[in-house]
Amino acid sequence: MSGQARTLRAGLIGLGAMGRNHARVLSGLDGVDLVGVVDPAGDPTGTLRAPVLSTVAELLALKLDYAVVACPTALHEEVGLELAANGVCALIEKPLAQSLDAATRLVEAFEAAGLVAGVGHIERYNPALQSLRTRLEAGELGEVFQVVTRRQGPFPHRIADVGVVMDLATHDIDLTSWVTGQEYRSVSARTVSRSGRLHEDMVAVVGQLADGTMVNHLVNWLSPLKERSTVITGDRGCFVADTLTADLTFYANGAIDTEWEALRAFRGVAEGDMVRYAIPKREPLLVEHERFRDAVEGKESDIVTLRQGLRTVEVSAAVLRSASDGSTVDVGPGAAVPAPAQRSGVDDVASR
Q1: For the domain with range 8-123+285-302, which CATH number is right: 3.40.630.30, 3.40.47.10, 1.10.260.40, 3.40.50.720?
Q2: What are the DSSP calls for 59-80, one per residue?
Q3: Do the Cβ atoms of 71 and 99 come closer than 8 Å?
Q4: Which string of DSSP letters, residue by residue, matches 153-187?
Q5: Mean pLDDT, the chain, as a whole number?
Q6: Rounded to whole angstroms, how far apart are CA atoms 146 and 138?
Q7: Cβ(287)–Cβ(298) under 8 Å?
Q8: Where does residue 102 rank: exposed (0-12), middle (13-18), buried (19+ CB within 10 A)?
Q9: Percentage of the residues of the chain whose pLDDT score is greater than 90
Q10: What ranges do the domains of the chain cover?
Q11: Phi-psi region of 3 (alpha: psi -120 to 50; beta: other; left: phi over 0)
């Protein structure tokens, strides 16, 4: 579609909490017309100008250039394969799919069709993390020692088809690899389920990246405190990114001489200056949509590819496998990650 100046025709599948946000952004996105939305439950707000349809087939009849898939994760494979078979590009909400096999089939289908496709790992477009990645690439932290993320808050009742690992933890797995530029080497995890649901609602992960960096993720749906924190510690200090407020702070490793004999032999760190950066703050979802629109138009654009989304599903599956059998799972290049044992009786799903 390179060189086309015409308005792109976009569709949306799913009008849950995230779908409504996609509808809002698509409705005002330059160079794009939102021509139709699919949700069997209709439009609960009655505010959409685009027609709300019952099936993907009806949406495809509107001759789309691309579609945004924001239905429940369990339906991503079915919907995505239908789009690929009909020559429609797709931005699929994270995670790419609920299993490694399903994610692989989606990757193969879109690649075989030669279509632009991406995954909605929105944290990559958070201003704090974008600034953090740029500063790490510039070597401002020196050697990186550890990445610690905390992502917790109350249970979102919109989620019925996956647990906290495939839903929330995929954010942290993707952003950690993206920010550091390093693949995961291994993961070890523990999960609990305390809310009476089929799936896990808390996970603690210890991992290692390819360069030896230590990784810790604490993710849960059991806390009344909503927190989205990424802390990266290295040779020259640590960065703290709060993705709720899009703030980035640097705590420098001080270099202050001391005459205190007992401390002279200490080779650790000292408290130095603290800097809170002023960052332009654009809405991450809008930036994500702009980047994907540009990619569909054939322009060079930074989107999260399906293969990158597949890798995140692979690491997430390894986290679940580790929690299931108590092992440390190798997820390095070429490592085969078997699927964790599945429970029966998946909950009925509603729009995401």
Answers
A1: 3.40.50.720
A2: HHTT--SEEEE-S-GGGHHHHH
A3: no
A4: EE--TT--SS-HIIIIIHHHHHHHHHHHT--EEEE
A5: 90
A6: 17
A7: no
A8: buried
A9: 78
A10: 8-123+285-302, 126-279+312-330
A11: left
Structure tokens at 166: 């495939």
pLDDT tens by residue, 47-105: 788 999 999 999 999 999 999 999 999 999 999 999 999 999 999 999 999 999 999 99
pTM listed for this prediction: 0.89
Supply 127's token pair.
């201003």
What does the block give as tokens for 187? 């993961």
Q: Which two tokens stand for residue 77?
A: 């494979």
Strands (E), the chain: 8-13, 32-38, 52-53, 66-69, 89-93, 117-120, 144-154, 184-192, 202-209, 214-220, 222-234, 237-242, 247-253, 271-276, 329-330
Q: Which amino acid is at 126?
A: N
- Superfamily grouping for domain 126-279+312-330: Dihydrodipicolinate Reductase; domain 2 (3.30.360.10)
CA pair distance 22, 243, nearest whole angstrom:
19
Q: What is the pLDDT of residues 102-122, one digit of tens each?
A: 999 999 999 999 999 999 999
Averaged pLDDT, 318-335:
91
| Placement of tokens 């001759």 in the chain | 63
Q: Please state, in angstroms and rounded to a whole number, the distance separating the CA atoms of residues 339 and 318.
A: 8
